[in-house]
């Protein structure tokens, strides 16, 4: 049976790879505050839709530091798996955690695009996984090297997408009330003009009551 082109909460897992400040300092492909905003939005989305989340870090004690605090707050008590290998797929514990989810569709977010993102993506694709790279939650050392890494992964079969498309794809229908309120909150807090528009629409449809006289 052909795989659906659209992801669902039941068929995918999120890999957060090396979302650490020491690596973010080197990112030049996207403004760092925008990168952090996008990663937090993606993490909140994964938690909302109850996706398995595998967080992994490298060189935490000597260079990169822990998972960035805002990202850690978004994923709650999920603990990162420390690696020595740049390729998560070649780390026994990290790969075992991915396999334990039972999910064959992977959403990948990480630093840096040229190595710790592209290496496991290429490795997972080679083993038949369906992989989506959340490009605006990844950062490269230069805009060109980031773009070239994305092109290489896409040429190998990865899908390149954005955190907002992931949220909308998982929500799919705004009448899904069980996730509506938090999904809307994520958009309002993290999606710039689109979030402003949702706030505006809500206020137009359900305007606030006028203040009481006096």
Automatic annotation (TrEMBL):
The keyword Protein transport does not apply. GO terms for molecular function: hydrolase activity. CDD domains: YcaC_related. Keywords: Hydrolase. InterPro entries: Hydrolase_YcaC-like, Isochorismatase-like_dom, Isochorismatase-like_sf. The keyword Chaperone does not apply. Pfam families: Isochorismatase. Residues 12-163 form the Isochorismatase-like domain. This is Hydrolase.
């Amino acid at each position: 049976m052909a795989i659906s082109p659209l992801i669902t909460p039941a068929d995918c897992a999120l890999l957060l790879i090396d979302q650490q400040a020491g690596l973010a300092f080197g990112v030049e492909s996207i403004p760092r505050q925008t990168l952090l905003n996008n990663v937090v939005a993606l993490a909140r989305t994964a938690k909302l839709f109850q996706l398995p989340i595998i967080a992994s870090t490298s060189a935490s004690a000597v260079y990169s530091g822990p998972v960035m605090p805002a990202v850690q707050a978004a994923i709650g008590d999920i603990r990162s798996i420390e690696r020595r290998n740049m390729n998560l797929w070649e780390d026994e514990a990290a790969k075992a955690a991915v396999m334990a989810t039972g999910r064959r569709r992977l959403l990948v977010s990480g630093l840096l695009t040229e190595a710790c993102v592209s290496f496991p993506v290429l490795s997972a694709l080679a083993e038949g996984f369906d992989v989506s790279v959340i490009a605006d939650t990844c950062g490269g050392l230069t805009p060109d090297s980031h773009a070239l890494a994305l092109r290489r992964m896409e040429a190998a079969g990865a899908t390149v997408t954005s955190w907002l498309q992931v949220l909308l794809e998982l929500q799919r229908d705004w009448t899904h009330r069980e996730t509506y309120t938090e999904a809307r909150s994520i958009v309002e807090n993290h999606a710039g003009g689109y979030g402003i528009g949702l706030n505006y629409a809500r206020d137009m449809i359900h305007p606030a009551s006028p203040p009481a006289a006096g």
